[in-house]
Amino acid sequence: MFTDLKSAVRPALVMTLLFALLLGIAYPLALTGIGQALFPAQANGSLVRDKDVVIGSTIVGQGFTSDRYFHSRPSAAGKGYDGLASSGSNLGPTSQALLDRVKADIATYKTATPDRPVPSDLVTASASGLDPHIGPEAAFYQVDRVARARGMEPRQVRSLVAGSVERPLLGFLGEARVNLFELNRRLDAIGAKQAR
Amino acid sequence: MTFQGWLLIAAFVGILLALTKPVGLWLFALYEGRRTPLHAVLGPVERGFYRLSGIDPTQEQGWRRYAVHMLLFNFMLALFTYAVLRLQGLLPLNPLGFAGTSEHLAFNTAVSFTTNTNWQSYAGESTLSNLSQMLGLAIHNFLSAATGIALAFALFRGFARRNATTIGNFWADMTRVTLYLLLPLCILYALFLIASGVPQTLAGSVDVTTLEGVKQTLALGPVASQEAIKMLGTNGGGFFNANSAHPFENPNAVTNFVQMLSIFAIGVGLTYTFGKAVGNVRQGWAILAAMLAIFLVGVTITYWQEAAGNPILHNLGVAGGNMEGKEVRFGIAASALFSVVTTAASCGAVNAMHDSFTALGGMIPLFNIQLGEVVVGGVGAGIYGFLLFAILAVFVAGLMVGRTPEYVGKKIESREVKLAVLAIAVLPLVILGMTAIASVTQAGLAGPLNKGPHGFTEILYAFTSAVGNNGSAFAGLTANTPFYNGMLGVAMWIGRFFIIIPMLAIAGSLAAKSYTPETAGSFPTTGPLWTGLLIGIVLVVGGLTFLPSLALGPVADHLAMIHGQTF
C-alpha cells in the first residue's frame, strides 16, 4: 500500500499542474481568441447600441413595467432583471408566498375575469429572472392596454404582435414566443415616426 | 401535453440511439489504447505529459494501485482548487474584484467539483472571478469526467480479462479520454455555443441602459468554454447562478436540445463499449433498454404533471401549465425533459427550477438520483453503478434457479455480491442519515425557503443530490452556511469514493477469475426477461428504501396541492 502511494506522488503532482495549464488556461484562452475573431457580436453578449449607449442584449430580458410597453414576466433576479443576480423564485407549488405574489400580479391586469384567465407565463417568475420572452397569448392579452397608453389603434398593435411571434424550429424545437426587447423597440420606432 | 412536446421527446430518444454506436466505438478504441486519427496532433502532448510526470503508460496496475493513484490525483486536484478559491482576491483575471471565498465554501466547492457533483452553494456571477471559473472549476469538469470513464474502463477489464492480476493504467486511461475525446469535442461544441450567443470574453460585465431607462449590468465571462464541458462531462456546474436557464448559458431551443443530448451522449456510448469489451454488443443493448424504459416512465410523469399545472393558481384565474421557474423559450416539454435527463445522468445542470415544479413533477428528478443515477447516469459512474445492480440481479436470478450466478462469462460469487451491496448501501445510509440530522437540528432547519412538506423535500433533495454526485438542487435551500457546506461536502466525498473503492475491488476480483462458458443452464443476460429483471432490481433495491421519505415530502406536498392547502 505504501509503495503504491509513494509511486503516485510525482504523477499526481505533475499531472495536476500540466492539466491545469492545458485545460484551465490554454483551452479557455484559445477559445476566447477564436470566438472573438469569428463571432465577435455573440462572444460579447449580443449587445445592441443606440449611438454610443448599450441599450440591451437581444437574448437577455429586461424589466418592462410601464403601461406603454408590453410587460415582462415577474423576475426573482435581484430586485427584478438584475444581470448580476440571475435566479428563480424557488417557491414551491404549495407556497403561500407564491399564492400572494400571483394574486397581486393578477390584480395589476385589471382585465382579468373568470372568462378571460391570465396566461400562466405572465404571472409566474422565470427560472433565470432574465427571460427575454413571453408567450403569444401573454402578449395579445396586453394589446388593449398598450394601445390605450400610446393612443394607437388596437388593431395596429395586434398586428405588430402577430408579426413578432417566433415559431418553433422544425415545428418542435422551442415554443411560440415573442421577444419583448424587439417588440417594444418596434413600438418605440412607430411612436418616433408618428411624432415626426 | 402536446403533440409537439412528444415529438421533441421522440426526436431526442431517436438521435440518442443513433449516437450510441459511433460514440461507443470511439470509446472502445480508447479503452483498448488503439491509435485514433487525433493521435497525429495530440500524440506529442500525451507523450510529453507522461515523460514529465514519469509515467509508463504500458505499465499495468492491480486494482489497489489503480485506486491509490486515482485517489491521490483527485485529492491533489481538490487541494489545488481550494487554494485557487481562497486566494482569488490576489490572483489575476478578476475584473469584478471578488475577494477569496470563505473556508467552508472553498471546501464545499473543491469537493463538489472534484467529485463530479458540481453542487453550488454560491452564485457564480457574484462570487467567482474568471480565473476561478477557468482554472479552479473547469479543469475538474474535464478530469472528474475522465476519471469516471477511466474507472468504467477498469471495471470492463475486470469482466473481459481472464486470470489477470491487473486492470489497466489509471494515468493512461484518464489522459487518453481527456485528450482524444473530451478536449476535441469541447472545442467544437464551445464554438457552436459561441455562434449561438453564449459569451466568451475576459470582460467581467457590461452596463446597459434599458428601454425604460433603467441601469442593468449584465455579467459576462468565458462562459462557452465552460458550458461545453459542463454538459459533456455530466458536471452541471453553471457559470451563472441560474445555470442552463440563463440566456447566456443556453440562449435558444437548439442549444437546449444539444445540451440535453450532450448530457447523455457519452453515457449511452459506454453501454455499447461495455458490450464490445465483453465480446457481445447485445449485453450493452440490454442494459440500455432497461435504462431507457425507466427514463421514459420518468419523463412521462414529469411532463404530465407540469403540463397539468398547479390547481392553486388555476383557482385564482390563471390558465395553463406550471410556468413558475421555467423559461418561455423552452416551455414545459423541454423543461420537463431536461429535468429528467439531468437527474437520470449525474449532471445536475438545470434549465428550469426544480424547486418550483409541481409536487410529483419534482419528485421524479429526486427519485432518479435516489436510484443511484444509473439510468444512463454520469459519464462512467452511470455504467459502473448499473453493473453493480446487474451483479445483484444475476445473484437474485441464481437464487431463484439454484445455481451459481454468472454474468458475461464470469462466476459471480459471495465476494462480489457483498462488495456490490456495500457500494449500493452507501446511498440510502448517508442520504437518509444526514437528512434526518438536518431535519432535527437548528442549523439544518434554518435552511429551507419553503414551509411544510416542501421544505422537508428541499433538505432531502440537497443530501440526495450531494451523495448522488448530481449537483442540482431545490435551490430555495440556503446552503452557503458552515453546517450545509460541511455536511454536503462530506456527503459528496463519501458518495463518490465509497462507491468507487468497492467497485474497483470487484473489478480486481473478477479479472482474476477464469472464463465460464455459457451453457444451456446459464441465465441469459440479453433478452427481455433479463431487461425486466434489471428494471425490477433497480426499482426495488435502489428505490424502495426511499419510499417513506418520498411520502413525507413530495407525496404530502401533492395532497396539499390538490386540496388547495398552502404553507
UniProtKB/TrEMBL annotation, chain A:
A Gene Ontology molecular function term of the record: ATP binding
Q: Say yes or no: keyword Zinc-finger present.
A: no
Q: Where in the cell is it found?
A: Cell membrane
* Bilayer disposition of the protein: Single-pass membrane protein
Q: Which GO terms describe its cellular component?
A: plasma membrane
User: Which Pfam family name is an example for this entry?
Assistant: KdpC
Its keywords, alphabetically, are:
ATP-binding, Cell membrane, Ion transport, Membrane, Nucleotide-binding, Potassium, Potassium transport, Transmembrane, Transmembrane helix, Transport
Matching entries from InterPro entries are given as: KdpC
Q: PANTHER family under this entry?
A: POTASSIUM-TRANSPORTING ATPASE C CHAIN (PTHR30042), POTASSIUM-TRANSPORTING ATPASE KDPC SUBUNIT (PTHR30042:SF2)
Self-association and partners: The system is composed of three essential subunits: KdpA, KdpB and KdpC.
Its biological purpose: Part of the high-affinity ATP-driven potassium transport (or Kdp) system, which catalyzes the hydrolysis of ATP coupled with the electrogenic transport of potassium into the cytoplasm. This subunit acts as a catalytic chaperone that increases the ATP-binding affinity of the ATP-hydrolyzing subunit KdpB by the formation of a transient KdpB/KdpC/ATP ternary complex.
* Family, per entry: Belongs to the KdpC family.
HAMAP family per UniProt: KdpC (MF_00276)
Q: What is this protein called?
A: Potassium-transporting ATPase KdpC subunit
Lineage, broadest ranks: Bacteria, Pseudomonadati, Pseudomonadota, Alphaproteobacteria, Sphingomonadales
UniProtKB/TrEMBL annotation, chain B:
InterPro entries, per database record:
KdpA
Its family remark reads:
Belongs to the KdpA family.
Purpose:
Part of the high-affinity ATP-driven potassium transport (or Kdp) system, which catalyzes the hydrolysis of ATP coupled with the electrogenic transport of potassium into the cytoplasm. This subunit binds the extracellular potassium ions and delivers the ions to the membrane domain of KdpB through an intramembrane tunnel.
Q: Which UniProt keywords apply?
A: Cell membrane, Ion transport, Membrane, Potassium, Potassium transport, Transmembrane, Transmembrane helix, Transport
The main location class comes to membrane
GO CC, any one term: plasma membrane
Q: How does it assemble?
A: The system is composed of three essential subunits: KdpA, KdpB and KdpC.
Locate the transmembrane regions by residue number. Answer: 6-29, 66-85, 134-156, 177-198, 253-273, 285-304, 374-399, 419-439, 459-478, 490-512, 532-552
Membrane topology designation: Multi-pass membrane protein
- In Swiss-Prot or TrEMBL terms, this protein is called Potassium-transporting ATPase potassium-binding subunit
User: Cross-referenced Pfam families, in alphabetical order?
Assistant: KdpA
Q: Where in the cell is it found?
A: Cell membrane
UniProt key word Membrane: yes
A GO molecular function annotation here is: P-type potassium transmembrane transporter activity
